[in-house]
Amino acid sequence: MKPTECTTILVGKDATIDGSTMIARSEDGGRTIIPERFDVVMAADQPKHYESVISHQKIDDEDLLPNPLRYTSAPDASGENGIWAAAGINSDNIAMTATETITTNSRIQGIDPLLEKGGLGEEDFVTLTLPYIHSAYEGVERVGYLLEKYGTYEMNGMAFSDKNEIWYLETIGGHHWAARRIPDDAYVIAPNRLNIDEFYFDNDDFASSEDLKDLIEEYHLNPDLEGYNLRHIFGSSTIKDAHYNNPRAWYIHNYFDPNFGGEPSDQDQPFICHANRKISIEDIKWAESSHYQDTPFDAYGDQGTAEQKKTFRPIGINRNFETHILQIRNDVPEEIAGVQWLAFGPNTFNSMVPFYTNITTTPASFQTGPKFDLNKIFWLNKLTAQLGDTNFRVYGELEADFEQKSLAQCHKIQHETDKEIENYSGNELQDKLNKANQKMADTVYNNTVELLGNMVNEGHGLMTLKYDLLD
Question: Of 2, 4, 5, 6, which residue is the catalytic one?
Answer without folding.
Answer: 6
